Amino acid sequence: MMNHGVWRGRFQAVVGGKSRLVDSYHRAPLKIAKPFYGDSGEIILYMMDTSPGIFNGDTQEIDCTLEQGVHLLLTNQSSCKLQPSVKQAESRQTVRFRIGANAVLEYFPEPVVPFCGSDFQSRTQIEMEQGGQLFFSEILTPGRAGKGEVFEYKSYRSETSIYYNQQPIVFDCIHFQPKLDPACTKGLHGYTHMGTLYAVSPKIADLDIQRVRDLLASGNDLSLYAGVSALPVGGLTIRVLGYTACTVQQLLTECWGMLREQAAGLGKFRFRK
């Protein structure tokens, strides 16, 4: 039996600027925990998957709207495990966010772990209005490295597109087929883990980008390799290569904390999991 997990949500900023989840629909195995608030007033939401993971042939759909002035911090409970199965069909994930004027979305899912034989395709589309801000990170691992499963999955394809005022500012496509073409991972230069942070905000200036470059250059961890690129509107993209999900995630979190303070005027945040 193939699963089709769904979560759709809509958030509004009510009197006093407090963000609230006003509409929510889910279909198993996806569901959400009860929202709560952070010290800075942001609404915090944890998504959960009651299945052991996403199996070949499964579909997962996430659709979320942030209306004007909303501040949402969204994450999931644990790593996304891409499971193989007897089904030959690929598994699919579709994610869509709409960020209203002066709204803030901070989306930090846990790392993706593609098991041996898994076949996965993900499409993420984010549409932003004037004054909206986005902080979004994703991390890809090579598989269950502790069991010796390194690049043993069949296919992993991820497409991310971001629009600001209906203008495309990011299109990032990653496609690895290590079982079919072992040379496809040469772009990782020997590294096994890859992380990306997208930060889009009209408040991010050239000086902030230079500060991120200085932060990346100041690290003493030679097991990481990182770079940053400016976006056509205020914002940047950071990509980190490493050998463990923990070290990649730690560096991206440090960059997020710096940008969060400079662009949104907020202190560093630490998830409790």
Automatic annotation (TrEMBL):
Chain segments annotated as transmembrane = none
Q: What is this protein called?
A: Urease accessory protein UreD
Q: What family does this chain come from, according to its entry? A: Belongs to the UreD family.
Quaternary structure annotation from Swiss-Prot or TrEMBL: UreD, UreF and UreG form a complex that acts as a GTP-hydrolysis-dependent molecular chaperone, activating the urease apoprotein by helping to assemble the nickel containing metallocenter of UreC. The UreE protein probably delivers the nickel.
User: What domain of life?
Assistant: Bacteria
> One Pfam family this chain carries?
UreD
State the UniProt keywords alphabetically. Chaperone, Cytoplasm, Nickel insertion
Instruction: Note the PANTHER family from the entry.
Output: UREASE ACCESSORY PROTEIN D
Q: Which InterPro entries match?
A: UreD (IPR002669)
Can you name the source organism?
A: Fodinisporobacter ferrooxydans
Its annotated function is as follows:
Required for maturation of urease via the functional incorporation of the urease nickel metallocenter.
Where it sits in the cell: the answer is:
Cytoplasm
